[in-house]
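Minutes, project huddle
Topic: does the predicted pose make sense with N-(iminomethyl)-L-glutamic acid bound?
PN asked that the exact inputs be recorded in the minutes so nobody has to dig through chat later. Recorded below.
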Amino acid sequence: MNQSSPLLWVNASLFDGLNGAAEPMAVAVKEGRIAWLKPMSELKADDKSGFECIDVKGALMTPGLIDCHTHLVFGGNRSGEFEARLEGASYEEIARAGGGIISTVRATRAACEDELFESAKPRLQALMADGVTTVEIKSGYGLDLENELKMLRVARRLGRELPVRVVTTLLGAHALPPEYKNDADGYISLVCSKMIPAAAAEGLADAVDVFCENIAFSVEQCERVYAAAKAHGLAIKGHTEQLSNLGGSAAAARAGALSVDHIEYLDEAGVKALAEAGTVATLLPGAFFILRETKVPPIELLRRYQVPMALATDANPGTSPIFSLKLMLNMACTLFRLTPIEALRGVTAHGAQALGLQAEVGRIAPGLQADFCLWDTNNPAELAYSVGLPRLTHRVVAGMVADK
Ligand code: NIG
Ligand code: FE
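Predicted holo structure (tokens), as shared on screen:
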């Protein structure tokens, strides 16, 4: 197959990123983009001229999956903390005792760029093997200028060297580094006056994120970060309402955030603020599962206010050492009671919206980049229903069949 020639994929059972098609579809790809699509019953002999045809025989075609929230670049691991939590220690207790995020900061600072790249690569490849074609990667384990930029450089390099689109996010305001003990405001000044300008000037970050929580930063501190991000033309996101309700989601929405993520403790006023601002609610069932959380995000309210729900792995060494977006489809349904179609929208159309990329990826629609997956089933619900199957048979990036 000559991958650079125009391709016509025929007889696809299509989930286009928002809905399933009622009948088998033909999808035309030219120069890496979706040119057009139409039902097989309307396909004329003329439509095929100039295309090489590939008959997928009823296989399910979905957009390439989008993991819109990960922390894939980090040093070391936290299996010891996992064991401590099994013995009864809480995530907050471990964090307050200098473990948790700060222990990964020590390991990440000690690692050079090549080491971070080599350890992140198999994590990213695991996501790609699940059909991921776009992934967001955050910094947040450097917590000083040099190490935050180091993490972002590694993330950019992953995107250059592997067939996947990488979007990067500066998460300088993730935790308070030991050098700034008792001076959170001073650290936020460093984030605003040094990290954000440098990341923006070097083109290393597409967005800026914060951790708004009692064990991290206050709403006011997060608002300072948002203002600096916007002044440098960067999008904003937030880890909000994960462990308590501080009003961080509403503050992020007021500042124009693309998404707020976790949101187990979000209340109705917060949901309303998201709806008004057009901010996406990103659900992270992996962290909920690993922390054995019991407070479920307000799914019914999000539906009622028509807030788009994205779904991501939150892949990280502490709260979600999970490198499977497909598993998240199942967990979103079993743990949060999403429907399989809502879950699928979360890793396609709504995942793209959480990254501000909805005009580029996340749907199979004319003009968008031709990123899609073919699966060994014809039923989209099976992607959420079963763990380990159905098999991904093709992962296509910008029209080219890519390595899984
Ligand atoms: O998304 N909530 C804060 N940050 C990460 C956890 C990072 C860690 O524990 O290393 C999260 O869950
Ligand atoms: Fe996270």
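Observations noted during the meeting:
- Residues 69, 71, 239, 314, 316 surround fe (iii) ion (ligand 2) (CB under 6 Å).
- Residues 149 and 202 are 9 Å apart (CA to CA).
No decisions taken; revisit at the next huddle.
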